[in-house]
Design goal:
Layout lengths: L8 H14 L7 H9 L1 H9 L3 H5 L2 H5 L17 H25 L4 H31 E3 L10 E4 L1 H4 L9 E7 L5 E3 L6 H17 L10 E2 L12 E3 H10 L3 H7 L3 E3 L6 H12 L7 H19 L13 H15 L11 H10 L5 H23 L12 H11 L4 H22 L12 H9 L13 H12 L5 H20 L4 H14 L3 H9 L1 H13 L1 H9 L10 H4 L8 H8 L8 H24 L5 H31 L12 E6 H4 L9 E7 L15 H17 L10 E2 L12 E3 H10 L3 H8 L2 E4 L2 H15 L5 H19 L6 E3 L7 H15 L12 H11 L4 H23 L5 E3 L4 H14 L4
Parallel strand pairs: 3-5, 3-6, 9-10, 9-11
Antiparallel strand pairs: 1-4, 2-3, 2-7, 8-9, 8-12, 13-14
Helix pairs in contact: 1-2, 2-3, 2-6, 3-6, 6-7, 7-9, 10-12, 13-14, 14-15, 14-18, 16-18, 19-21, 20-22, 21-23, 21-24, 22-24, 22-25, 23-24, 24-25, 27-29, 28-29, 29-31, 32-34, 33-36, 35-36, 36-37, 37-38, 38-39
Length: 931
């Protein structure tokens, strides 16, 4: 049954120790000892279900490839959600353990293993689909066709699942469709087909994706569906056909080539396949696909750089992905004319390419051998701990395991063997796909000479102010070990850069900023190559640095953002305001909850990427100042939301949950003050936040180490502070300022919402009520949102002595101005000087605190512009005063924004805003009766 080769001593000891712990009364079973030594996942499985060792050692079972249903002999309608999740997860654990045994102990062929695991995955998806349909239909009925037959949800498996080449710990990419838009029949109430199938899809995803005490079946990725993460979860056949005909992109053609319907065939299958086929396969020989795939490969290379991946057998040069590109490129080129090439399986396609004489037989055998070898290595890496990894191990234990399985004496030999295989793949990839560069026009030798000699005078249009930054950059190069490859790229890149600078008539400051960026990446040749191989990216870099010093500094601090410059269509199109939260959730789908370091880096990269897109749109006039602030504010809210989810998971893992809570109802809320509360977040803004909850100290969490609920929420808040304020390789996330909480810096970091209310009612100062004007709850369940809104309204609508209120507001404003204003007779401080932004904010706050007792409408909004508009409509100020205040406020903010993008502080020549300053000062004096 097994390979008889003896395990190394360390692995033998590990396997024996584990076996004796599990089976102290049983005779030694060498295959099980070997399995336990080679896989931590197998060890966990047998800990969970120890009797499975007998099942594994049954010879008939090892040769059995029959696929049984997880719900065999069970009535779907009687299975509740908890039981469904448990059955699916135990089925997965059992059969994945079997595959591990086949691969590690029985020398099973990798082609058989990946096909078997794909068939098992099909059964799990089909079972989840049937159960989900049955449970939604129990309440809502189901859509029926003309013959009275139920119409099932169609599940299209993509990627390796579609090709029946699933790897051991893969996530699954799915697309959902339904045949007709027909209302349900037979339920308590009839609903539209779109709603019915969306409910089925949501249950299906949860049944596979949700992590329970029994683990997880698959990570489910829905981003390949039409319109991506912003699109509907399910679509009708007609809608899908319209989408691919009108909007389908090249990468979607490539992805759809692997699309395969999963489940029991029915009369709608052929209809669905036929409507997709014209999109995937052209009726002519389609060589345009080569360029598209070349660009996709470049994007993958950029992702490798982004994630700092090394020793990656999938995405690296010569990796598994390049084999897939070779075969699928040739399929797409000729598949429209040669139907035998229209297959989802890579191995079948390779066979058919030899039949069609596209690849000769010897070449095909080499490709297949190398592909299966890399897939075998990938399978081993993932079986070690059931982790989706394609990176060679850096720890001694897993290196020993890999050496043993690859029959290599040491890890260096293993790497050498793998690299030889990948080199052969890369040579074949270059032959089929090619890798092109766009050289600088040789007629523009002046730029080459200027760089070679470090002398700007070679240029026809001399830019004397460029001479100093050019000389300084060349001097710095003498002190840095760039390497031959890096220097060769620089010698090609710098003339191209000089040409772009010349085309944009760039200033010396812009040139200096770009040189600063180059200094940061000078030893990372991959980034230099990115700029040279992508003239468009170089052009965008120059354009943005000419527009904004902040963008230049941002890219200089985080050079990984250079990848964002490649596609201007994405760069200058920020995410829609309604999509940030969905996008960040999808972004984190592939990240394990327990990998806190990667989560922290990913939060920062998400912020930096989207801030760059917003800034690019801002600097080039695509967005106005109000829209920019909206985007930066909603981005911050999405990041807070995701950070709370991460902190919640980590805190619950240690202490369990407070009573009455779950992942959707945490009993926890975040109140935003200041710029965040007022929708005015800037590029370098900190976040003024206060954390509240709805539990008291008498209740306990339900974990192995229970603590009282109040302590739980304090620890949750502390974890959040850690996520935000810790400085990683990508800096801090945001500076979190929580000093506006009750009792300030000496108060509890997270407070019961009713205690917050009591403090505001009995102890808060006037300035704290002023701050509450700009406060809103940005995260929390509905009952907390409603309660906070009521508390805020009650506080703001309190009766106040106008003379005392007026004196308090004036006193606080003067104190702020005394400590913070930087202006003088010529320079105007946009924020703090008399007639500036702070005066407008204090006027707004005063109007709310004075008049809200009679006009509750003033408490609805938390931003200055809408409050001033309501104040004028109610009659608290005149329409003219409103117009002057809003105009001045927007003028100041727009100017402040421009200064921020160019990092010039907040001082401006006073004469530029004389009219606004006069208007605001006069209104201040009028409202506070200071004339």
């Amino acid at each position: 049954m097994s390979n008889a080769k003896q395990l190394p001593i360390q692995l033998q000891k590990l396997g024996l120790m584990r076996f004796e712990k599990l089976y102290p009364q049983q005779s030694k079973q060498s295959e099980i000892i070997r399995l336990l030594a080679l896989s931590d996942f197998a060890w966990r499985c047998l800990e969970s279900q120890p009797a499975l060792n007998t099942w594994l050692l049954c010879k008939d079972e090892i040769h059995n490839r029959a696929i049984d249903s997880p719900f065999e002999n069970l009535n779907l309608a009687d299975i509740d959600e908890v039981q469904c999740h448990k059955v699916l997860r135990q089925y997965r654990e059992k059969y994945w353990l079997k595959v591990a045994f086949l691969d590690l102990c029985c020398n099973n062929s990798i082609s058989d293993s990946i096909k078997y695991i794909s068939q098992l995955a099909d059964m799990l998806i089909l079972s989840a689909n049937e159960w989900s349909h049955a449970h939604v239909a129990k309440v809502n009925g189901e859509p029926l066709d003309e013959q009275g037959q139920a119409m099932p949800l169609m599940v299209l498996g993509m990627g390796k699942l579609g090709g029946q080449e699933l790897n051991y710990s893969s996530d699954i990419d799915l697309i959902f469709a339904y045949p007709r838009s027909i209302k349900t029949q037979g339920g308590r109430r009839s609903i539209e087909a779109q709603i019915f199938y969306t409910k089925v899809a949501q249950k299906l995803i949860a049944s596979l994706n949700q992590i329970t005490g029994d683990g997880q079946v698959f990570r489910v990725d829905m981003r390949l569906r039409p319109f991506g993460e912003s699109g509907p979860l399910v679509m009708s056949f007609n809608a899908i056909e319209d989408y691919y005909q009108e909007q389908g992109r090249d990468w979607e053609r490539y992805a759809m080539l692997k699309g395969r319907l999963i489940g029991t065939p029915n009369k709608y299958w052929d209809e669905f396949i036929q409507l997709l086929k014209p999109f995937v396969y052209r009726r002519y020989i389609d060589f345009s696909v080569i360029e598209s795939l070349r660009k996709m490969k470049l994007m993958i290379a950029q992702e490798v750089r982004r994630k700092r991946l090394t020793n990656n057998i999938k995405l690296g040069a010569g990796g598994i992905r390049e084999v897939e590109f070779i075969v699928q490129a040739l399929q797409m080129v000729r598949g429209g004319r040669e139907a035998n090439l229209q297959t989802q399986s890579l191995l079948n396609a390779l066979k058919e390419l030899t039949v069609s004489q596209v690849i000769d037989e010897l070449e095909a055998k080499d490709i297949q051998r190398n592909y299966l070898y890399l897939r075998k290595v990938e399978q081993y890496l993932q079986i070690f701990d059931d982790q989706q990894t394609q990176t060679l191990p850096d720890d001694d234990l897993n290196q020993q395991r890999l050496n043993f399985l690859l029959e290599q004496p040491d890890f260096v030999s293993s790497i050498n063997k793998i690299e030889r295989v990948m080199s052969q793949v890369n040579n074949e990839f270059t032959h089929v796909i090619g890798e092109e560069t766009v050289p600088l026009d040789t007629s523009e030798g002046a730029f080459i000479s200027a760089w070679d000699h470090g002398d700007i005078s070679f240029l026809k249009e001399q830019k004397d102010e460029w001479q100093l930054p050019l000389q300084d950059f060349k001097q710095r190069l003498l002190k840095v070990n760039v390497g031959n490859r890096g220097r060769d790229i620089l010698d090609k890149l710098m003339p191209a850069l000089l040409k772009q600078l010349s085309d944009f008539k760039a200033s010396a400051a812009a040139f200096t900023m770009i040189c600063q960026i180059l200094n940061k990446i000078i030893s990372r040749t991959a980034y230099l190559e990115l700029l040279y191989e992508n003239p468009g990216a170089l052009k965008q870099l120059v354009l943005l640095c000419c527009h904004s010093k902040w963008i230049g500094e941002h890219i200089s601090r985080y050079p990984i953002l250079l990848d964002e410059l490649i596609d201007p269509a994405i760069l200058y199109k920020p995410t829609p305001l309604s999509a940030y939260k969905d996008e960040i959730r999808q972004y984190f789908l592939r990240i394990e909850y327990d990998d806190l370091e990667l989560q922290m880096e990913s939060l920062r990269q998400f912020k930096q990427t989207h801030q760059l897109r917003i800034a690019a749109a801002d600097a080039t006039g695509v967005l106005d100042v109000m829209k920019v602030s909206d985007h930066l504010t909603v981005l911050a809210e999405a990041i807070v939301d995701q950070a709370v989810n991460i902190a919640w998971h980590n805190t619950v893992k240690r202490f369990g949950m407070p009573p009455g809570t779950d992942n959707e109802h945490k009993g926890f809320a975040v109140i935003a003050y200041g710029k965040t509360g007022g929708f005015e977040v800037g590029y370098d803004s900190d976040l003024d936040l206060v954390f509240v909850h709805n539990h008291d100290g008498s209740s306990q969490t339900n974990g192995e180490k229970p603590i009282d609920s109040r302590q739980f929420y304090l620890k949750l808040a502390q974890r959040l502070m850690h996520l935000f304020n810790t400085r990683t390789a990508s800096g801090i996330l945001y500076e979190l300022d929580t000093r506006l909480r009750p009792e300030g810096a000496s108060g509890l970091l997270a407070i019961n919402l009713e205690s917050f209310n009591h403090y505001q009612q009995t102890q808060a100062w006037t300035w704290e009520h002023q701050a509450l004007v700009r406060a809103r709850l940005i995260l929390g369940q509905d009952d907390l949102i409603d309660r906070f809104s009521q508390i805020r309204k009650n506080i703001l609508c309190q009766q106040r002595d106008d003379a005392v209120l007026k004196a308090d507001v004036i006193k606080m404003r003067e104190k702020m101005r005394e400590h913070l204003a930087k202006g003088d007779a010529e320079q105007f401080d946009l924020k703090q000087d008399i007639g500036g932004m702070a005066d407008i904010e204090f006027i707004t706050q005063y109007l709310v605190l004075k008049h809200a007792q009679n006009f509750e409408q003033l408490t609805v909004y938390s931003d200055n512009v809408r409050i001033l508009t309501d104040a004028a409509n109610i009659g608290c100020i005149t329409k003219n005063q409103k117009q002057q205040l809003i105009k001045a406020y927007i003028d100041y903010r727009s100017c402040y924004h421009v200064l921020s993008l160019d990092q010039q502080g907040k001082l401006i020549l006073r004469e530029a805003f004389l009219q606004d300053i006069t208007n605001v000062t006069n209104i201040w004096n009028s409202i506070f009766e200071l004339n």
